[in-house]
Amino acid sequence: MSQPYDRVFNFSAGPCTLPVEVLEEAKEDLLNYKGAGMSVMEMSHRSKPFEKILAEAEADLRTLLGIPESYKVLFLQGGASLQFSMAPWNFLGAGQTADYVVTGAWGEKAVEAAAMVGSVKVAYDGKAGNYNQAPDFSSIPLSDNPAYVHFTSNETIQGVEFLSDPAIAPPLVCDMSSDILSRPVDISKYAMIYAGAQKNMGPAGATVVILSDDFMAKSPAKMHPILDYKLHAKNSSMYNTPPCWTIYMCGLVYKYLLKKGGVAASQRRNTEKANTIYQAIDSSDGFYKGHAVCGSRSIMNVTFTLPSEELTSAFVKEAEGRKLDGLKGHRSVGGIRASIYNAFPLEGCQVLAEFMGQFAAKNG
Amino acid sequence: MSQPYDRVFNFSAGPCTLPVEVLEEAKEDLLNYKGAGMSVMEMSHRSKPFEKILAEAEADLRTLLGIPESYKVLFLQGGASLQFSMAPWNFLGAGQTADYVVTGAWGEKAVEAAAMVGSVKVAYDGKAGNYNQAPDFSSIPLSDNPAYVHFTSNETIQGVEFLSDPAIAPPLVCDMSSDILSRPVDISKYAMIYAGAQKNMGPAGATVVILSDDFMAKSPAKMHPILDYKLHAKNSSMYNTPPCWTIYMCGLVYKYLLKKGGVAASQRRNTEKANTIYQAIDSSDGFYKGHAVCGSRSIMNVTFTLPSEELTSAFVKEAEGRKLDGLKGHRSVGGIRASIYNAFPLEGCQVLAEFMGQFAAKNG
């Protein structure tokens, strides 16, 4: 089965597949963006065309996620990894404790960075079960009056996802890097959401931060400029030169998603895509074993193991021959990881599921 | 005079003009990079093709600048603005003082960030002269044994540049954002150089840090992970997902510069370009007044004023009609700023100089 431009099905965990028509538009305008006489890569961030690109990207993201006016939307640099430090720097004061819910590798990294800033309580840690589930939030014992509660809505390595928005009283901070825009979200339940661009939004190099005005007001008056959410907000993400091209690409993806029916339609497509692969796991008579428990299965990263390392290697190799690329799982879980973010096509999941059936029949 | 793809002469201070043939190559490979079946924007940073892109970018930059093996080369995010904080965080310990040489607006910002970390001495401040010169380094009174001495080799707003490498005993840290690769540099005179990509290297979104092993060893053992040069170096710029597309574009620019004869040839081209405009200033019988004093005139940003604001506005407007774009100066200096980084063509400087002569003759 041949894809346009002889492209492969790219199951990479991120950076990852972008919509073909978005790439086509970027290519079309690459040397001269809509008559501006230059590429978006060459454009002053203070120019009218780029100011419009940034404003439209923000407006479209607000529409997609229903972001209230009382929230700021920022496009920053440094990835989620910088947010691991920036969030506690801004919001974990002396004498306070922040609670962390850890369901995988990225949550662990967030704890590591926050613990260098202040007092951290790990309110939930799924490590004993090798991070195979997203717990019921209401069952997690939280601190009295924590500065905030942090969690990772989707863990890419383990393929474990919270499929709905937790409802808790303390300010909720969420690393939504790998499932933002994959489903509708009730923003009002969150004090802050951050997300690296390189899964569901665009190329690597930008981080979206969605931040309630009330929460932002708790940040100290005097902060290091580049690490100060208030300063970035005051300057509409232009305190320093923003990653213009990445923001432009995110903006094209937002317009594409709006045209495709918004995040409710994303959720339907993503659920169908994930179920196609999960069904191949569940109907394999135990040849494939899913890593995440049912109810915590990610619709973004489907993780499963095979009976042996030899079979896993053979699976990855044969899959590559069918242009199914990037399926090798992370070493901490082993097996296979099929990352199927928003822009990944259903067809690729069907080809994988069919191959899984054939491979199990031959080797089971 | 018509340019390919109906492009304008883009005098923007950054982001700014990139070489047309670099943009053409990026366009050609946009949907399928050299048979990988995907765009560089969609590629795992752990994939073989991207590892090769990163390794070649580093190797080519080392060749261009003659960077010794005893220096690390890092590709980070956050712009020079993050380096304003990262440098003192890593190298300005308790009980130490760092000296700052301030020749313009970016130096001021570097001081502001460093002063939040530790003790800073402004060893030179050109503010009284509205930052119109780069002083003789040997005349600057430095602290006894400073942690480092920081300066900005080219100030984009004022158009003031150090045209050779200072030779001092203490560790020298340089913000080379706007003139890196514009001329040969003796790296061994520096402990650390940092530079945002968006002037002479590529699109906005990456920062190159060149750091001597000896200097890096002075960084504290325990640092915030994302702000720790040692950790980034240990992980070869892949501690977290790097800005892959921006690095790719920088890599294409490095190959282009090598093909064009390296940085010695850059310097010859840039000097000729700048002189073309400075001559138009100096032969205008005082109609145009250069901001920087002779000997400190930048070969990257040529700044000058006209007799009145009305004439300045008329100049900018008429220039735009001739496809000379982005000439309006920064409000702190006023007048005109012609930013003519590496990729800006000589032809554009000639067109501007010709226009300057005509405009002065008509309005002088």
Describe the structure.
The structure is a homodimer of 364-residue chains. In chain A, helix 1 crosses helix 7 (244-259), helix 2 crosses helix 7 (244-259) and helix 3 crosses helix 4 (105-115). Chain A is 35% helix and 16% strand. The radius of gyration of chain A is 21 Å and the shape is globular. Chain A starts with 8 loop residues before the first strand and ends with a helix. In chain A, the strands form four sheets. Chain A has a seven-stranded mixed β-sheet. Chain A has a three-stranded antiparallel β-sheet with strand order 11-12-14, with helices on one face. Chain A is built from ten helices and 14 strands. Chain A is α/β, with parallel strands linked by helices. At the A-B interface, helix 1, helix 3, helix 4 and helix 7 of A face helix 1, helix 3, helix 4 and helix 7 of B.
